[in-house]
Amino acid sequence: MRRRAFLGTSMLVFALSTMSAFAQQKEVTVWSWFIQSTMQKSIDAFEKAHPGVKVTYTYYNYSPEYITALKAAAASNSLPDVIGLQPGSLTQQYRDSLVPIDELAAKTWGKDWKDKVFVVNRKQMQMGNPAGDNNNYIVPQESQVLCIWYNRKIFEKLQISVPKTYADLKAASKALTDGGYIPMFQGAADGWQNENVFLMLANQFSPGIVDKAQAGQVPWAAPELVSAMKAWKGLFDDGIFQQGALGAHAYPTGAQLFAQGRVGMMALGSWWMQESKFPPPLSEYVQNMDGFDFFYLPPVKDGGAASPPIGGIDIGYGLTKNGAKNPEAWTFLSELTNGVGLQEALNDLNDLPAFEGHEPKGDITDHVKQMSARFMADLPKAENQRFASPAVAEALDNALAGVADGSVQPEAALASVQAATDKALGK
């Protein structure tokens, strides 16, 4: 009887201690479009380093699911603790639901913490803030450089050389189409991918001109921007993009077709290196990334220059006002962007670091190392990818769609962007 009583007491003590530990465990809620398998590795590393904290992650496809979910949650004051953000327009759209992270960052990393952020990222962190607001509402996790990826094996099979001129690009697209492949997949139903390609074009004609236009320093009707808009239309008319591009999405449709070896080219960015880390089954083209390489969009104007590197912050994270009530939320955010969580993302080649002093570790092929080194060399030279005002970004998205489907002429489309810019600037 005594033994039974002893065992019963032990079990009761164990149960109570377990319940106590469970009660003491804190939870952090996170939403993002950040790839789920990589995020789980970051979460596992964080929870190992912080055993009293549980992280609950909700993944969304960026467009339109994530954008829709954020709008609904913000309207009902039910945002999670931490949200994934792009700098500029997306951050500004939710700035009223966020708290500044400056003091927290200084306590965690020191007063000079921003000096360790790559320059192009640093410039984007406060994009769109109202005059006099010098707070930072986003911590960058990763950087990116935009480019045109291509399937090396298909190019070799069809004897296509990397395009150096627009004529080369048209010839490559025709050869791919004739060979039964999609030439350059464009998810033209997604504003973000259209913006990226337009930025490639505009910066060919005048590097930095879009930044000047959105700041009101040059008109959107500038000849260089009109030429860029006409060149954008040409990518559809000249068969560079696939038929039906206006109704297509880059993710998941385009990315899946590209990974399956059915697409010759696609405008993406340095994040595509992550495909080499995905588990089987995968196409032979994706394994180890040996089947892929990248180039910059060739000049559409004879004698012109190819698109310069364009990029900056790939993804960052903001601390919501709900998250500010949870001390563990900042702990996770800081580790995700500049700690153990970031290292896991880099090891998965999810993208380039936003803070200096980090690099991927583990099993990485020489080919991927070389591509990563090329991207890192180009990052300091990158032109800004982001828009400060949500309204200007939306106006440009609508303008690009209208020009692409032929319903609006380039000059009229750019006039609508000018109107949105003037309104955003208070003119």
Automatic annotation (TrEMBL):
<keyword id="KW-0574">Periplasm</keyword>
<dbReference type="InterPro" id="IPR006059">
    <property type="entry name" value="SBP"/>
</dbReference>
<protein>
    <submittedName>
        <fullName>ABC transporter substrate-binding protein</fullName>
    </submittedName>
</protein>
<dbReference type="GO" id="GO:0042597">
    <property type="term" value="C:periplasmic space"/>
</dbReference>
<feature type="signal peptide">
    <location>
        <begin position="1"/>
        <end position="23"/>
    </location>
</feature>
<dbReference type="InterPro" id="IPR050490">
    <property type="entry name" value="Bact_solute-bd_prot1"/>
</dbReference>
<dbReference type="Pfam" id="PF01547">
    <property type="entry name" value="SBP_bac_1"/>
</dbReference>
<comment type="similarity">
    <text>Belongs to the bacterial solute-binding protein 1 family.</text>
</comment>
<keyword id="KW-0732">Signal</keyword>
